Amino acid sequence: MSRCRWVIVLGVAVACAGGCRRGPPAGPQNLVVTGSRALTPLVKEIGQRFQESHPGVRVDVQAGTVPPGTPGGGSDRGVQDARTGLADVGMVARPLRADEAALHPFPVGHDGIVFIVHQTNPVPGLSDEQVVRLYTKQSTNWALVGGKDGPVTVIGQAEGSSALDVFLTRFKLKVGQLRTDQTVFNTTQGIKAVAERPGAVAFVTSGAADAAVASGTPVRVLPLDGVTATAETIRAGTYPLVRPLYLVTRAPPTGLTKEFIDFAQSPDVHDLVEKYHFVPLP
Q1: What residue ranges define each of the domains in the chain, with the CATH number in brackets?
Q2: E strands along the chain, which residues?
Q3: pTM of the full predicted structure?
Q4: Tell me: the pLDDT tens digits for 110-155?
Q5: Which residues have CB under 8 Å from 3's CB, separation 6+?
Q6: For 138, which DSSP code?
């Protein structure tokens, strides 16, 4: 066989070997999602449902790792982890701040923040001005805001709470201006505190408050500026104290990350959004 012919045969053999060889089997694919403690249970269930239709995919959902009440936890941690690449997706239960504008936010639902009082408290509702007066101790008696004579017990939420962040933004207050009698770390504790104190007021998430009322817990939800928080007024933005629920990424999502976010925004998970007392996207 001539030398030229040997070269041709060898070339064909090498080409066949390169084209026919199978690559290593694809390994498991992981998505890491961190951030808001309020969103964690919902996004965990969304992740489990996503995994059912994506064999080999694992969605690892973790709440902010700092203790509740510590500045920088929850939603702030979701922002930080998405920025630095420690997470593929961050969970944020508040509007993005000006210095977070470079992130890419994707809403998965909405949540109202409402004021609750004991069911025996006859105050008809609160205005923005009355809220500020109560939480800065300018008004310390319910008679000053349309209720019956009696002292006001002000329940606040701890620093690091996204609900507190939304509250402060809405009423143009700083943490140092608040004068509260008790601090809670979440909505469940806020509802319990008001149920046990007839003179108390607290701000909590709307869905959880409605569920508490329906279960017989002795609390009442107040209209704010004359508007009652309902799924319709929250979705439309006519209720004045609403927070968006975001999944955020550092760059425009692609591949598996985009598939997961699209799924989290789809009607396929509306039942889960409602299960956790949030308002689904339209």
Answers
A1: 30-109+244-275 (3.40.190.10), 111-236 (3.40.190.10)
A2: 29-35, 57-63, 89-92, 104-118, 153-157, 182-184, 200-205, 219-222, 242-249
A3: 0.83
A4: 999 999 999 999 999 999 999 999 999 999 999 999 999 999 999 9
A5: none
A6: S
